[in-house]
Amino acid sequence: MTNLSDRIVFITGASSGIGEATARKFALQGARVILVARRKDRLERLTRELTAPTLALPLDVRHQDEVNAAVAGLPAEWQEIDILVNAAGLARGLWKLYEGQIDGWDEMIDTNIKGLLYVSRAVVPGMVTRGRGHIINLGSIAGHELYPGGNVYCATKFAVNALTKGLLMDLVDTPIRVSSIDPGLVETEYSQVRFYGDRERARKVYEGLQPLTGNDIADAIVWVASRPPHVQVAQMVIFPAAQGSAMVVHRHTK
User: Could you say which architecture CATH assigns to the domain 8-238?
Assistant: First the structure.
């Protein structure tokens, strides 16, 4: 088992959901955590709550210039990033492709694919130079299976799957590890975002079953990161007990 104490962990999407839970879990392990997200107020609140050394980095991963400037401008004591967790991502709508909203498509593509690329391009070269590091991407069962209305979102997660596997190949001759954590139903702000704040519609996504939580996925991320250096968990698919595939879910009726 790898000791995570004093490791520098760079987490995108850290202001809520799985990203926030992951920051909390790494902090409990004694890691030093760089919190990356757009919502500065939430990052500042989380920074106050964590007992581990923490650096808040408000930025939008969709903007390459912001990402490059933020990574290049890290204080000297925060520059040697050991673990990168690409957790920033979102879904928008459940539209038929020919009825899709272009701005929603752009948000998903720019965040889920391009944001991951921009951050990885800025952080991974330093890992290669130092000869150590671990990249953990947050995928989804939507990167393995399509479902009705999920066309563009699923396409972005299929892309994450491909990019993760490609990066694993690119780094096979280095000590750097690459992993993907691919959850099924996780109850966070995800569905509220997908349905533009419609809390009732979001609630129904998880109705009649016990979904996963952000903490469940954070536990998996920290476990993967703490494996011995020669162990690489390339991909982990995680479902709640009542889920069998993207579209097979058992819901209890009253």
Answer: 3-Layer(aba) Sandwich (3.40)
Do residues 128 and 122 touch, judged by C-beta distance below 8 A?
A: no
Average pLDDT over residues 2-29: 96
SS3 for the chain is CCCCCCCEEEEECCCCHHHHHHHHHHHHCCCEEEEEECCHHHHHHHHHHCCCCEEEEECCCCCHHHHHHHHHCCCHHHCCCCEEEECCCCCCCCCCHHHCCHHHHHHHHHHHHHHHHHHHHHHHHHHHHHCCCEEEEECCHHHCCCCCCCHHHHHHHHHHHHHHHHHHHHCCCCCCEEEEEEECCECCCHHHHHCCCCHHHHHHHCCCCCCECHHHHHHHHHHHHCCCCCCCCCEEEECCCCECCCCCECCCCC
Q: What is this structure's pTM?
A: 0.96
- pLDDT tens sequence across 186-234: 999 889 999 999 999 999 999 999 999 999 999 999 999 999 999 999 9
Distances (CA, A) of 221 to 68, 108, 139, 238: 25, 23, 12, 11
pLDDT, tens only, 32-53: 999 999 999 999 999 999 989 9
Between CA 99 and CA 232 the distance in angstroms is 41
Compute the distance between CA of residue 205 and CA of residue 198 in angstroms, rounded to an integer.
Answer: 11
Catalytic residue IDs:
153
In whole angstroms, give the CA distance from residue 95 to residue 130: 45
Cα of 115 vs its chain's centroid, Å = 11
Report the pLDDT value the prediction gives residue 253, as an integer from 0 to 100. Answer: 81
